[in-house]
Sequence to fold (409 residues):
Amino acid sequence: MKKTLVLSLALACACGSSSSSHNQNPNCQPGTATTLNASCDPGFTKTAPNRPGTIEVTFSGEKLGETGLPFTGNPSDTNFVDGWSMTFDEILVVLGNFRLAPGATQSPDQRVVGNPVATMAGPYVVDMHKPSTFGIGADGIEPAGSIFKWDTDDAGNAFDNNTRYSFSYDVLRAKYPATQVNLTADQFADYSLMVQNGWTKLYRGTATFTGSGTPYPDPAVQAKFAALPTTIHFMFGWNDAGSHINCNNPDYGTGQASRGIQPDSNGAKVAQVTMHVDHVFWDILKEHTDVKLRFDPIAAWAPQNTTALNPFDLRTLATKPLQTTFSDGTTPLPDRGPQQTTLGGGYTCGGTRPCAQVTPNLNGVPASNIPGLADFMAFSAQSQMHMGADGLCYDVGQNAADPFFVPGI
Fold:
């Protein structure tokens, strides 16, 4: 019921219907009621056809999505402060309800836009780990993938080159029929698993403890750390369905004036859906600056000898309390970041990050919405969707006025 309310709010904020099945790409039709389509040709690359007035929609998991999260020990890099490295096998996400509407910059309230003039219902399932069909993406480093393009609005009219259109989209629960964009046949079973469980996203990968430095000062606690598995194959799936409205576009600067996308008579313009894969492991909700990545609270519950075929499942954490402990359920899990980060000045716990026990920070979100660690991760994941490299959208369900949503595990 909560999810239905959130989706209703999202559609209301978008100020228009998004149920259109309008699809301008005959090469990427959806699959059947039980299977995905075999292939997809979105019909454009970075250089062709590059038609003036066209809006091209792409996707990227950027560098972290492609190459993973290696532990470097340098605080200027994106690190797990507790010494873990991570690689990904796949990062599946279901996207849809794309819409363009005039009035992107008209109101200080980011939710306020005009009625949509161009829509694309989807759903599209993409693998953010391996986009490749478009060329280098908005971050200027890693590849992006093509999804679809709008040559005209839904009425067949050319876009106005003098209008800034808001760009909004939804993350959707997996269902059939759906259009897979860049999956291989061996990934179709994972999409079926997503449908079965009502998930929006699925991570598969491997976490390996590669930290170095001094042991934890308490020998008894260090023995518990030493008993954790050092390699963990994982599968994390969850439902954080919701809308991402009127996204900021770094191509136009920052703030209210940067929202949306404006067609150009010189060539196509690109609206990139970007996923910041690290959000799932952040230790504070609703925050984009003062965050740290952690894996120890997850590793504490992981069994030994996981494999790619028998991975650690996020659903195991659905019954684990937010208050972090070792797997005995009583011994507090302390912050060993200071022992692991040895380069570039290191990491120091204390203050809002007590050294004696890792404490995920709800940052004002009601505790009843976040009953456990898995829910904390899924709530944080809802804010990982952006436009361009790091353009923030209005994420429905991340704000108390929406109200806050309850993730589905």
